[in-house]
Amino acid sequence: MKSKRGAGARAKLREFFLTNLNRVLDSKELRAAAGDTSEWARRVRELRTEEGYQILTHNDRADLKPGEYLLIDPKPIPAFARGISKETRAYVLDRNGFTCQMCGAVAGEEHPYDPGRKTRLQIGHIIDKSMGGSDEIGNLRAICSVCNEGARNLTLDRPSLQKLLIQIRRATASDQLAALEWLQKKFSGQSSDRPHQQKSP
Ligand SMILES: [Zn+2]
User: Fold this and answer.
1) Cα distance between residue 100 and residue 97, in whole Å
2) Model's pTM, two decimal places?
């Protein structure tokens, strides 16, 4: 009876978060949405840890107060990604310069192909699991939620150095400077002793 009631409260909260995307919810609303159970906070935690919903709190975002919750991305992180350690995740994101390896969107900035939506990065596979790819760190990369939604089983070619340089030469001076600043930031922040030194596949 108790677990059944808990599952019901969790489903109600899931529904409530999904119908209130991008809206900051407070503990009072969530408690009511869960059917006025004192266990609502535990159910919210389960949505994060067991179902992979990226429900943000003041620990994730400075503009949220304690007791405030926010769901932006309706898509939960896939189960395999939740199994990836914080260290591995941080390492992969750092290695990829906090940039989506398919479209180049930068974490936290407005998404270039989905204006108004902030880029959220997830960890994805370079070679998809369905094509024999592994969970090894060498087969992981940063990928944004927009690409992740449309890009299963696709492998996208990186631009060649020649094409990249041509694009940069054609860009405006201010865009070139922005690119320079981005590269400087990327390479100045890198530490020399990194965890998980492994060879790429
Ligand atoms: Zn992307």
Assistant:
1) 9
2) 0.45
